[in-house]
Each structure stands twice: as C-alpha cells, then as structure tokens.
Amino acid sequence: MTSTISRAAEDRRTVFCVVALLVVITFVNHIGAYDLWWHLKAGEIILGSGEVPRSDPFSFTAPDTPWTYHSWLSGVILHSVHRLGGVEALIMLRALLIAASLMIAWVAARRRGVGLGLASILTLAACYQLGPRALMRPYLFSFVLFTVFYIVIQGTFQRAAPPKPACASRFGAEKWFLWGGGGRLIVLPCLTMLWANLHAGFLVGLLIIGAFGAGEMIAVAVRKGGISYLRALFTEDGGARFRALLVAGVLCLAAGVMTPYGPGVLMYPFRLLTEVKLVRQVQEWQATPFTASFAVFWLLLALTVVALVRSAWLCGRGAELREKVGQFCADVFLMAGFGLLAVSSVRNLAWGMLLVAPVVGYHFVAARHAALAGEPSGEGDRRRNRLYVLAAYTLGLVLALNNVIGGRDFGFGVSEERFPVRACDYLERAPFKGRFYNEYAWGGYMIWRFWPQRKVFIDGRCLVYGDGVIGETMTVARGEEGWQDVLERYRVEGLLVRYRPRDSAHF
What we know:
Radius of gyration: 25 Å
Low-confidence stretches: none
Shape: globular
Number of domains: 2
Transmembrane segments: 12-31, 89-107, 114-131, 137-155, 176-196, 202-223, 244-270, 290-313, 325-343, 349-366, 387-405
Number of helices: 20
Distance between the termini: 76 Å
Keywords: Membrane, Transmembrane, Transmembrane helix
Helix content: 55-70%
Protein name: Glycosyltransferase RgtA/B/C/D-like domain-containing protein
C-alpha cells in the first residue's frame, strides 16, 4: 500500500513538472507587446523619483492630462527585471507567470478529483488558447492572482462545515472559514491590496467571491428547513460560509482602494469603457471572433455547456444535485459570467480559460461518477487515465515543438517585425529633433527609446488620450479629410509609420 501511494505521488510530480516545462517552452518567444515599453519607462521614473506619476509625461498631444497608473508596481517590477537581465529576463518572467497561472489551475483541478490526464489535457488546451494574450504586460500578474483567488475560495467550499465546538463561541462559525479548519479566506484582502497595485484586474477577484457567494445563498435557501431565509443566511450556522465570504468581499473591496490613487484604481475599468468610446476600435477590446485562431476557445465554451448540463442531469437523477447545489451554482455563475466576458472582448478571454481545468474537468468526472452510480473505479479507469496522460504529453509536445520549430518568434529578443527597431536606431543617430506622428502601436516603444528627449503623438494609454486624440490618430492613419490639419495643429514635422502602399498613399 505504501509503495502504491509513493508511486502515485511520484506520478503526480512527474506529470506536473513535464506539463509545466512544456508550457514554459511554449511561451519562450520574442517580445511583441506594444505596451510593455512605456511600462518599463514608467517604472524607471518611479524608481528614480520615488513617486508615482499623476499626469502624462510622455506625449505632446495630451501633456499633463491626469493619469491613473494602476499598474505602477508592475512597472517597477518589470523595469527592475529588465535592468537585471535584459529582454531575456522579461521573456522568462512572462513564460513563468503564464506557467504559474496554468499550473495553479491544474492543482485546483486535481484537488477537485480530476484525473492527472484530463487535468493536463484541459490545462494544455487553455495554454494554447492563451497564446494571443501571452504578452509581457501587467495583466500576467492578474492571471496568477486570479487562480490563487479561485483555489483559496474553492478550498473553502470543499471543507466540512464547522464542528459544534467551533460554533459555540461568538462568530466561531465564520472564523472557521476565515482563518480556521474551514479555509483561509482572510488572505484574500491581503492579496487584493497587492493585486490592486499590480493591475486593475483585481476586480475579477471580487467577481469570483460574488459567484461563490451567490452559490452559497442558493445552497442556504435549499437547506434552510422551516426557518426564515434571512435568519438562516445571517444568523444560523448554516449560513456561516456565506457570511465569511461577505466579510472577505467587503475587506477586499476596502483593500482595493489602498493604492497611491485611492478609489481611482477601482473606477479605472469603468471609466475606460464609458469615457472612451473608441476603445472598441482597439483589437483586444473587440468581441472574440469566430475564427480558426479562437477555435479552441469556442470548443471549450461548448464543452463547458455540455459538461454542466450533463452533470446537472445525471446528479439530479441520483439526488446528488440538492446536496451540491451551492458548488454547482457557483460553477455555473463562474463559467457563465467569465464566458460572457470572453465572448464580448478578447481582452477577457483568459479568465474562463484558466477555469476550464478545475470546473469543466470536475463536472466531466462528476457526471461519470453519477453515471456509474458510485461503482468503484477499476482497471478500465486506470487505463483510461494513462491514455489521457499520454494524450496530454503528446499535446504538450505539439505545442512546444510548434513554437520551437514552426514559430517565427521562438527564442530571446525583440520582434523586429512588430517594432520599428532599425528606424529608431536611425533616429538616434540623425540630427532631426522635431515632433513625430507615430502609429498607435509604436508609441510605447518610442517612449522607451527616446523619452524625455522626444515625446510621442500617442501610445496605448487610451484613457489619457480619450476619444479626441485617438480619433485624430485614426484620421491621420486613414487619410480622412482634415488629416493634414491635425498634423499642423500639433506642429508635427515627421512621420513614423508602417508604410503600406494601399493604406499609406496619402502620406
């Protein structure tokens, strides 16, 4: 028995390490993130001055415009990593952050009883679809903290209800879930304070709490017995998990404003989407297209629906659904909410992908167990799991080798196809010091290369520029009526553009 347990633990470690290594190899690519560069420069400014910027220092089109730099701590980290190890260190940091987020999701799936093979296949499928979002930008820190949030809260749902001695003291039942044998929800506000200074994506952590809280509210309604619902929810021991989640959520909300910008970080995403109408012209804010590049996303979305419906039907037949209704509803809220966000915007695609292994994998397993009516697993299940592991290894090798052999950007360095590296080299040597109009995508790189000697026309900070400057940039890029007037108004003397005969003839 001991040798069997030891072998199983060794198998888990082996699969974990192999999958993690394959994920890392998949994301060793040249730097291609347009916005990375102004983050590096902002981090340099913060470390040099000891203060966060509060107005735009980088452009001549929106000088001194108020700027909420919600990712200031990420900028400091990225600049420090670059200073220590150059672009190569940034590439490894990117690969490690993505691997960490995916492997935490893998661990969450295993804790929910998903087999080694199935957890690995779903993790690697998510790995493939994360490719378009695998850019070295602050949201990678959000990926990691998102999965940490999930695994902490999910762990609370998998723990038993508080024992009677724990409930005897005042707030004892709530403490059981906040910092006792029922979970560690109290760590979430601390994580939120860190997250809010790394990236405004900390708001999705509140959505996770909300999804689990809503699921628990439904569970309390189902099992409340003859007492009133509000009493069961807010005073009885059966509602302790919900109350602990509520306390954690309120503390997380308070922690989210503990940044140099106060509530400004909390409002940033809402301001961006409501004040900048043209943000939808930016590719990452557009709806996820139904194309081959996102085929795995649409397939996993369909599998999610199938898994949840099948699990509900089979568990409902066996009367298990009532017992697990809180967990089931939380899973539905998570996948429906983050699925809708992903469909509405490519930028939000990652959240649902990171939940595929622990949520979809669990419901496939739960449905199978319900179909077998509790029969113990046998040699057939073990053989199936070995086949799944083999399939996972094959999938991981395909992804890694596709990057190493088939990918044009494999390795370390800056993608010269995406950035005007040689043009900027020339400008460094040229005596010309006038203002340049630049493409939206290249502003960040120009900031990194030339600030403070040169300022840019525009870069990726949409809320700084607003619809006015973004619209003017599009007018010039498209050669629409008045494009020359825009350049004259800003006293532009040169152009740095990707010249295409069809689109750039007006230049």
